[in-house]
């Protein structure tokens, strides 16, 4: 007698017959996604604006950097001659060292001061809004106005800061004649102007830390320094990376404030790369060397920012 049992459908004469798979309802069938090419029209304004504000001017600078321009219709192709002359120019090298030193001092001063200011700001209550407004005030002042303010403020005869240093502290301070005084004036001006940016970024990072972290630290009896070191500082790594990159780029490309205050002097004491580039491009109207200088300047900023970003991100892992 043939053994017949039902297993997962039917079994006839010992052979298993698998039922066909059930078809999915038409409503649940996945339809292939259709590409919406009209979305490119939404990106087109951005592409056009970037082309006119970045790509086309950059290509124009590249064109000037390989030519010796005598007039709008008279120019000679010189290849990499301007790049070689710029890299061998001792004045450019000195300006590069001054700019690097200034950026390093800015970071060493503004990052700790900004974090300290953010930690000391209130976390709740009416004084939060008041402190945020007061801290953000220097950021609202235009760069040329900041330069004018400090140009008058640091004057030894009519400026409150310069008069106080000369008459109260008894120090002979004159930023128009002494290179050290000019350097300290530009550095103090930048610290006053941009430390609030670091403070606001750090304060936003501190406010994002959940309150139970501080409650647990208080229960464990952790001191203020231990709370900052083990809770607040690790949580600030991301915003501090952004702050360091922003402040490095801004300080490395600083132009308006020192130009208004000192004009790059006395001598070349505060002549940074940006001021020297402006002197070559606008003062001497040497478009070829200025184009090569601009490209090298741009390349240095990109390389240093990449190094900063790589080091900071890898150290946080």
TrEMBL record:
Membrane topology: Multi-pass membrane protein
Region Disordered, residue ranges: 1-31
Keywords (A to Z) from UniProt: Membrane, Transmembrane, Transmembrane helix, Transport
GO BP annotations listed: transmembrane transport
Organism in which the protein naturally occurs: Nonomuraea solani
Pfam families: BPD_transp_1 (PF00528)
Any single Gene Ontology cellular-component annotation: plasma membrane
Location of the protein in the cell: Cell membrane; Membrane
Record protein name field: Glycerol transport system permease protein
UniProt family annotation: Belongs to the binding-protein-dependent transport system permease family.
Transmembrane regions: 39-62, 100-119, 126-153, 182-206, 238-256, 292-312
